[in-house]
Write a structure and sequence with these properties.
Distance between the termini: 40 Å
Strand content: under 5%
Shape: elongated
Strand order of the largest sheet: 1-2
Length: 145
């Protein structure tokens, strides 16, 4: 059975006849034609919910704050673990704390040159991911406008 009024058969060639007693019912998929018409707004836009500080708006803002806090904690813990690895490296490798590189103790070189790229990488990762979180939030807020 079709919905276009042509009187054709249903998918699978079963025809428009009634189901046979004792046979399992057949599934028929009914779909609407795709249209280019825009949806009409069905309620408050999310941006309005946020601006009015409604309960739903507060949920969206809390979600953004939670994701940014989670990101900050993950980046900070990762940075601290890498930073703690430097003294552990000096303690585990014998003689490394007394080694020199161009007349400068290796521990100083490691802390002076090795830490700054880690700081830069951590900062770059944080800014990039925080911007992505904010962009997703803005997409969500502007979606229903």
């Amino acid at each position: 059975m079709t919905l276009d009024g042509a009187g054709g058969s249903a998918p699978g060639g079963a025809g428009a006849s009634a189901p046979v007693a004792g046979s399992p019912p057949q599934r028929v998929r009914v779909t609407a034609p795709r249209s280019q018409a825009s949806r009409s707004p069905t309620g408050y836009p999310v941006a309005r919910e946020v601006a009015e500080q409604s309960e739903l708006g507060q949920v969206f803002v809390r979600s953004l704050i939670r994701s940014q806090l989670r990101l900050a904690v993950v980046v900070a813990v990762g940075f601290l673990l890498i930073l703690l690895a430097f003294p552990l490296l000096l303690a585990w490798v014998p003689g490394l704390d007394r080694a020199e590189f161009i007349g400068v103790p290796f521990a100083w070189v490691l802390l002076g040159v090795g830490v700054y790229p880690v700081i830069g990488l951590s900062a770059w990762l944080y800014v990039r991911t925080a911007s992505r979180n904010e962009a997703r939030y803005l997409d969500l807020v502007e979606e229903d406008e």
